[in-house]
Automatic annotation (TrEMBL):
Record's bilayer topology term: Peripheral membrane protein
Protein name as annotated: ATP synthase gamma chain
Keywords: ATP synthesis, Cell membrane, CF(1), Hydrogen ion transport, Ion transport, Membrane, Transport
Pfam families, per the entry: ATP-synt (PF00231)
Superkingdom of this protein's organism: Bacteria
Length: 311
């Protein structure tokens, strides 16, 4: 009985230690969510403006730039998967990897070979465990990404895209015809949805001028210096880097929100386990005390009976 009480109390101490860890991680994740959301909001105006300028450039240029031209008979596509470096974030990584696998199956059904680029240790571990090749990977910044991290990923993806599937990069790697990004979009504190979108070739939506006369809706008027083609060569790589950076920021906010929810659930579950184990320990202790009292009373009765027999 005493051994059972000791075991139960040891389990309570172990669960409390785990609870302190999950509570601390929950508080850290909560503080990071606001910072990540602020970074997403700060990066949004630049992303929207560079998109508007690129659309204006595309409308006045000959559209012969590789990042704007749909390639015939595309044979190879690159997928950039964004995951986390650490665990304890619920289904965040599993959902992102599932979306990447669904996209891989779709591209393969279209007759395209898929090459993988991974951000985050969890995604890299998933593919390494299954012995599936990863062209390039980056880690160590999933919770607090910087623009330099996005530049590093873009520096690996863009050369492969520009040479196409028929060419090879300066470092001897294979070229690709498409670039897709799979990341997680922050919807709310309780909802984060994995998304897959194509970065290149860039999809330009052409909208005809609506209305006539004074009712006509005019777009912004730009004067380009140097030529639109030269500006496209300079701005489209920046656009790709910006979109990757936006995906990293959105994923960072989603990761922190998912970790907060998972750690809060773990803390609440630990509290329930502690109550249950404490109750069992109290019951075991009460049973031990009852047994000891019964033994004392029984011993006293036996001594009293023995004394009466001697008399």
């Amino acid at each position: 009985m005493a051994a059972q009480v000791r075991v139960l109390r040891q389990r309570v101490r172990s669960v409390r230690s785990t609870q302190k860890t999950t509570k601390a991680m929950e508080m850290i994740a909560t503080s990071r969510i606001a910072k990540a959301q602020a970074k997403v909001a700060a990066a949004a105006p630049y992303s929207e403006l560079i998109t508007d300028v690129l659309e204006a450039l595309a409308n006045v240029s000959t559209l012969d730039h590789p990042l704007l031209t749909e390639r015939e008979n595309a044979r190879r596509a690159a997928i950039l998967l964004v995951t986390s470096d650490r665990g304890l974030c619920g289904g965040y990584n599993a959902n992102a990897i599932k979306s990447a696998e669904e996209l891989t199956a779709l591209l393969r059904s279209q007759g395209k070979e898929v090459v993988l680029f991974v951000i985050g240790r969890k995604g890299l571990g998933y593919y390494n465990f299954r012995q599936r090749p990863v062209v390039d990977s980056w880690s160590g910044f999933s919770e607090q990404p910087t623009y330099a991290d996005a530049e590093a990923a873009a520096a690996s993806l863009l050369p492969a895209f520009l040479v196409g599937s028929d060419g090879t990069t300066p470092d001897g790697g294979q070229g690709v015809d498409e670039i897709h990004v799979v990341s997680t979009h922050f919807v709310s504190m309780m909802t984060q949805s994995p998304t897959a979108r194509r970065l290149a070739p860039m999809e330009i939506e052409y909208v005809e001028q609506s209305g006539t006369g004074s009712d006509a809706k005019l777009g912004p008027s730009y004067e380009f210096e140097p030529s639109p083609e030269a500006l496209l060569d300079e701005m489209l790589p920046k656009y790709i880097t910006t979109r990757i950076y936006a995906a990293l920021l959105d994923s960072a906010a989603s990761e922190s929100a998912a970790r907060r929810a998972a750690c809060k659930s773990a803390t609440d579950n630990a509290n329930d386990i502690i109550k249950k184990l404490s109750r069992e320990a109290n019951q075991a202790r009460q049973a031990q005390i009852t047994q000891e009292l019964s033994e004392i009373v029984g011993g006293a009765d036996a001594l009293a009976a023995a004394g009466n027999e001697e008399d």
